[in-house]
What we know:
alpha/beta, Rossmann fold, three-stranded antiparallel sheet, 10 strands
Amino acid sequence: MFLRDTLLNRLRRGCQTLAYPHGPAPVLPDRHGGALKLEAAKCPPDCTACVAICPTEAITRQPHKPTALDLGRCIFCAECVRICPAGAITQTGNHRMAVRRREDLVLGAQGQEQVRLAGALDDRLRSLFGRSLRLRQVSAGGCNACEADTNVLSTIGWDLGRFGIQFVASPRHADGLLITGPVSKNMELALEKTYAAVPDPKLVIAVGACAIAGGPFQGNPPIRNGAGDCVPVDLYIPGCPPHPLTILDGLLRLLSPEGIPADL
């Protein structure tokens, strides 16, 4: 009786996994806002309202130079969007934000209004990793927000394993590290040892503002201002925390330039 009821309930529920990437991506909640866009040409002369209000100094403006917005340091509080008198900074609602180079997260530089999205790994690395990617997750002093959104990807709704991507318990079994948190001094040695334990060739993925640049803790003596101070980073996924869809898109971009494996 119990087995019959269980099977019937499963049949009624149907497939609970998201249709993405075969179907449309989930809509981000209004309060999330997605990636920011900076149209520096709209900035009024000598206006520094957004610079003064930014809690992580992600926005800078040097004399006679355009405003610059570093999405790697941004915690997406949207205060700059609210206070900008010219509407130069806007929320796009776009979940795609992952990049391969740190400088690609800096808007306003050389006329860049939006992030330059990550490209795929080179053919050699993709052939070595095949259709699978095994990651060891390291929480290097995080608040558990990025860790929670990363864990969501392993639930039935997202089913990260269907893309051949899995989290493993040992760095010896991993293709790379997925790092969250600003890397506290107490976690520095542990992170370096974990990185050394991953066989070559290996990847490092920094998830969240803390792992990229220290987040709201940057500049404090007990903090290393992100994973890049300790190990080389191959993929940056900004946010505070990043939406699970942003993390998933970033991981898939390592396998394909479009962010979706070619065989799906």
